[in-house]
Input
Amino acid sequence: MSLDPFNAFLYRSEDAKPTSGTDPGSVPALRGSCVGVKDVIDVAGMPTTAASKLLHRVPDRDAECVARLRAAGATIAGKLNTHEFAFGALTNSPHFGPALNPWDPARTTGGSSGGSGAAVAAGLVDLALGTDTAGSIRIPAALCGVTGHRPTVGLVPVDGVLAVAWTLDAVGPLARTAAECRRALEVMAGRALPAEAPRRVGLVTRLFEQADPAVAAACEDAARALGETQPVELPLHEEISTITQLVMLPEAAAVHLPWLRTRLADYGPDVRARALAGLLLPARAHVTGLRARSWVRSLWARELGDFDVLVAPAMPIVAPRLDAIPADYRLLIMPYNSPAALLGLPVTVVPCGFVDGLPVALSLTGRAGEDGVTLAAAEEFQRATDWHRFEPETEELYTNPVSSDERG
Output
């Protein structure tokens, strides 16, 4: 297995090499692209473990999204680290170790697609697949300084992808640029996505106000590259986090029920606690969550009708140290990730600056089914800025990789 000081890869193909610079106009669309796959997505002949002690299957066929990438000429580099069962926001599996942030290996990548964010940021792959149930593509894209896209739920098939919560799960790409994300997404979706640039851009003021002041200032400066914006207040923004949990936790508990009954001790502490919370919620909690989601969707439809894209900081803080994760980390980030998760909306995350040498990112949220609009906004932003061109200095780490003791 090739040297990987960022603990991004769990399993890797020796003959797969990153090939950035391949002519994007080549046919097939992804010929020469080196792709890493989050380890909840099946790759034929490679273990799917979900970074857990409970799962170790070797599928004989690719997940549909992987099969479509292969058919478009992509080379699969291997399987990427994840939070255990993709059920968390850090990528710190107690069984496989944490993924390390290439900008500072003492810091988290975020999660749960942390291996995907780290692998792209470090140049280990050209493109990575992640999954996003409640922020798991967007969080590592933001903290690792790469571009990521959470698609509209249902746009990309999830056949061969281990579920977290059936009604919330989405599979999407992480790459250096929005153009690369678009190319991969169109292949996985099986159709072209309209590229009409947004005309009306809303600034989600509440999320700027709640972010760390330095992060908010960097995002406000970057948002000017999108042109004129209008402030917007969205209904029930805080309550949406609770509603999302009412939907997600019971669905996740249903996925894990057989193991919760027979192998409870084999879960890591945080995933075990969350799965049990879902198991212990009464049945009416899930029904209430689904009914509340319909209500929120109708309220938000009125606001989203006035804007093509909503802009906010993708994360309220920069990547925390692995040994100093804030006690309220999940509560801090929920308002930034739960609304699009609950409503199944497309979001593109783009790097937009640095605070204390660590990446900061904007999120661009669109209406359901209008992935092409958020990607067009991101492409326009990246034509006007060069934040996506910055790369961490990783050469020294390849020469002197971080030891297991230093990783914690």
The radius of gyration is 19 Å. The CA atoms of residues 333 and 375 lie 23 Å apart.
